[in-house]
Amino acid sequence: MVILKSKKEIDIMEESGRITYDCHMMIRDHIREGISTLELDKLAYDFVTKRGGKPAFLGYKGYPATLTVSINEEVVHGIPSADRKLKKGDIVGIDLGVFYKDYCSDSAYTWVVESVSPDVEKLVNVTRESLYRAIEMCVEGNRIGDVSFAVQSHAESNGFSVVRDLVGHGVGRKMHEDPKVPNFGKKGTGHRLKAGMVFAIEPMINMGTYEVEVLEDDWTVVTRDGKPSAHFEHTIAITGEGPRILTKFD
Fold this sequence. Notes:
Elements: H1 7-28, H2 37-50, E1 54-55, E2 67-71, E3 74-76, E4 91-100, E5 103-112, H3 118-136, H4 144-157, E6 161-162, E7 168-170, E8 177-181, E9 198-201, E10 204-206, E11 212-214, E12 221-223, E13 229-231, E14 234-239, E15 242-245
Antiparallel strand pairs: 1-4, 2-4, 3-12, 4-5, 6-10, 7-8, 7-9, 9-14, 10-13, 11-12, 14-15
Helix pairs in contact: 1-2, 3-4
């Protein structure tokens, strides 16, 4: 069941989103060669809790950290570790969810460690662009399939593939609500978009095959062929005035 949010609820979710966004920008400033993914996680935990938020991922189905930190061929859900240190040429996907005043926000960015090859840079840029193409479709009267198709068409027209095993989702008092928001689909299909809907769009785009598998830790999702993957995400509210991004404050 899709739960529509009032303007007051969306305003609160934007407050949550502000914490999420500010934390991402703080983490961005610490992305460098030699830092461990556990150090990044500790920075995020301290930042979120000092702002009055609660890390949404920590303890979720037993997940042990505030962030998921996914490097290169890791698509999502990489577990922070003291032994995993960033290297020049890595791309690193940072996913963060925050509860604030009982409402959740969720977003992800993929950052470059110093510099990467042109094809990897293109992957990161196209994944980001896919997210914003999808956000443009978040207008009352459109359908989820229009959002999904926007991601898929942009990614595939640039020679990349779209992960099918993982999708975006509704957000609210729970981190995962209806509707599901795939990154692939057909125009004119799925739930019709209505004012008050809030969901996270999160393109996960691979350089090679779209196929993925889960490592033995039961969390980390990697590309089956070992090629790089990028991930971007924002929490979006549907309003009568168009899409409202709740996790971006440039």
